[in-house]
């Protein structure tokens, strides 16, 4: 993985703020993290993430006070779209197919030194795929994002 980018410039801080805003993280709740309900919800969140490798977050868990975890991201976000297209290109290169991105079903994201995306997508063969994609922060505002596709595979955790 690339080295962590230092957020010394105002432009980089603005870029990170933009990334953080694109990930659907609700405001901090007024909840006691030590309450029995919060402990149960956090345990369910962690179990779901482990079981689904980050691709599914149980909607029934409710509102959790998790700051550095994996959260939902808008499928229409430009990083989500770029990551999904890169995943389909990587799949095509690996399999020799000529698939196109049909739609993005779901995106979960984790803010790291960039964004780690867990993308569930549908390709032009009407099959569903899961991709884990890392998008780095550019070193300069004019540099393009660097996209690294860790894998793109037939969906394991998605059911229609």
UniProtKB/TrEMBL annotation:
<dbReference type="InterPro" id="IPR046350">
    <property type="entry name" value="Cystatin_sf"/>
</dbReference>
<keyword id="KW-0789">Thiol protease inhibitor</keyword>
<feature type="domain" description="Cystatin">
    <location>
        <begin position="72"/>
        <end position="134"/>
    </location>
</feature>
<dbReference type="GO" id="GO:0004869">
    <property type="term" value="F:cysteine-type endopeptidase inhibitor activity"/>
</dbReference>
<dbReference type="Pfam" id="PF00031">
    <property type="entry name" value="Cystatin"/>
</dbReference>
<dbReference type="InterPro" id="IPR000010">
    <property type="entry name" value="Cystatin_dom"/>
</dbReference>
<protein>
    <submittedName>
        <fullName>Cystatin domain containing protein</fullName>
    </submittedName>
</protein>
<keyword id="KW-0646">Protease inhibitor</keyword>
């Amino acid at each position: 993985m690339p080295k962590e980018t230092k957020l010394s410039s105002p432009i980089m801080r603005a870029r990170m703020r933009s990334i953080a805003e694109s990930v659907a993280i609700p405001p901090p709740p007024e909840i006691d993290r030590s309450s029995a309900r919060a402990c149960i919800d956090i345990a369910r969140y962690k179990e779901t993430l482990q079981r689904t490798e980050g691709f599914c977050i149980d909607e029934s868990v409710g509102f959790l006070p998790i700051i550095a975890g994996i959260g939902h991201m808008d499928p229409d976000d430009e990083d989500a779209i770029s990551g999904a297209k890169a995943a389909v290109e990587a799949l095509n290169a690996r399999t020799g197919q000529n698939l196109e991105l049909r739609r993005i079903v779901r995106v979960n994201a984790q803010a790291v030194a960039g964004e780690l995306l867990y993308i569930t997508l549908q390709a032009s063969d009407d099959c569903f795929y899961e991709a884990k994609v890392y998008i780095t922060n550019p070193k300069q505002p004019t540099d393009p994002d660097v996209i690294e596709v860790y894998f793109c595979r037939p969906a394991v955790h998605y059911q229609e």
